[in-house]
Amino acid sequence: MTPDVRDRTGRPSRRQAARGGVIPEASWRRAVELVRQADEVALACHVTPDGDALGSMLATALVLRATGKRVVASFGDHHFDVPRLLRFLPGQDMLVPPDAYPSAPELMIVFDSPTVERLGLLAPSASRAREVIVVDHHASNAGFGTLRLVDPSVAATAMLVEQLVYRLGGVLDRDIATCLYAGLVTDTGSFKHSSTTPAVHQMAARLVATGLRTDEIARELWDRSPFGYLKVLAAGLDRVRLEDDLVWTYITRVDRAAYGLPYAELEGIIDVIRRTDEAQVALVMKEDDQGAWQVSTRSKGAVDVAAICAALGGGGHHNAAGFTSHDSVEETIGRFRGLLAETTGEA
Questions:
Q1: For the segment 254-305, what is each residue's pLDDT rounded down to a tens digit?
Q2: What is the pTM of this model?
Q3: Residue 132 pairs with which residues in a beta bridge?
């Protein structure tokens, strides 16, 4: 067997990175060429960004700026605000609100978004851009864009961005590594999900070697919350229901308003609900500021929640997915429950 070849930084060689991947080498070369030809690169990630979406985008922004490119980055929420848990990420000085984003970018790079609709207010820019590179790891990716760097076999979009960094001639420093590490740990559930492979740990080792503080990152992501979060969590726990293999609850705007809690602070509630031993599937409905229900689901493996959420207009991964509903709580959970019954053969 030919040994793996690594450069002096310990990163995988291009030959090694290409083995086993689903992205053709020609696509990587085309992406690099498009970036080098562009005077300005517009970056975007999905609405209500998580660590993988925002971390992947900001890591790329830092690399591009270091190479002398003009860079603009954004996400298409009506209320443009970086989630508090992610405000420690470097590179946020390159973020602009959607109304300051180019309407027809020369080159647009989209991160961690399986559909153009997930870009929210930035979707029109994607439709008018000359070139759109999509960097994503969702199996439900709809195949939009003019060039797709999509690999559902990797645990996080950040793993693809690391390869893009190297191919652009970038070098991992602590700031770039911090952004990528945030993406890696959030999408693997701090290395607890089944998507955690040897390659995930190998990448983590490369990132930690830059000198980043994993304890500080963990504290920012998981070990901080305002007091109001505890009160809102209590409201959700008071409503929680266990129905056969499903445990679920909901959080309203009124719950949050009572304690001035922003919507973004609700992200971790699903991780509390899913611990229920008696349920294979967990669901949390969170009412956003516009009155829509943002639904998060988790599976312990036996049920493909991505397939159910896709049937409801959303998507995600086998064990973690979501969708948006404009119906009532009863109608929304009824539709989900019906599809879940069909999936488990209990219909």
A1: 999 999 999 989 988 999 999 999 999 999 999 999 999 999 999 998 999 9
A2: 0.86
A3: 108
Give the pLDDT score at 21. Answer: 67
User: Alpha-carbon distance 86 to 297, whole Å?
Assistant: 21
- CB count within 10 Å of CB 263 equals 20
Average pLDDT score, the chain: 92
CA-nearest of 155, 180, 157 to 318 is 155
pLDDT of residue 20: 42
Q: How far apart are CA 233 and CA 237, in angstroms?
A: 6
Give the 3-state secondary structure of the chain.
CCCCCECCCCCECHHHHHCCCCCCHHHHHHHHHHHHHCCEEEEEECCCCCHHHHHHHHHHHHHHHHCCCEEEEEECCCCCCCCHHHCCCCCHHHECCHHHCCCCCCEEEEECCCCHHHHHHHHHHHHHCCEEEEEECCCCCCCCCCEEEECCCCCCHHHHHHHHHHHCCCCCCHHHHHHHHHHHHHHCCCCCCCCCCHHHHHHHHHHHCCCCCHHHHHHHHHCCCCHHHHHHHHHHHHHCEEECCEEEEEECHHHHHCCCCCHHHHCCHHHHHCCCCCCCEEEEEEECCCCCEEEEEEECCCCCHHHHHHHCCCEECCCEEEEEECCCHHHHHHHHHHHHHHHHCCC
Cross-strand bridge partners of residue 297: 283, 321
Residue-wise pLDDT for 249-265, tens only, equals: 999 999 999 999 999 89
Question: Which residue, 115, 54, 64, is CA-closest to 86?
Answer: 54
- Between CA 58 and CA 214 the distance in angstroms is 18
Distance CA 46, CA 230 (A): 27
Amino acid letter, residue 123: A
Q: What are phi and psi of 11, to 5 degrees?
A: -80, 155
CA 116, distance to chain mean position in Å, is 14
pLDDT in tens, 189-222: 899 888 999 999 999 999 999 999 999 999 999 9
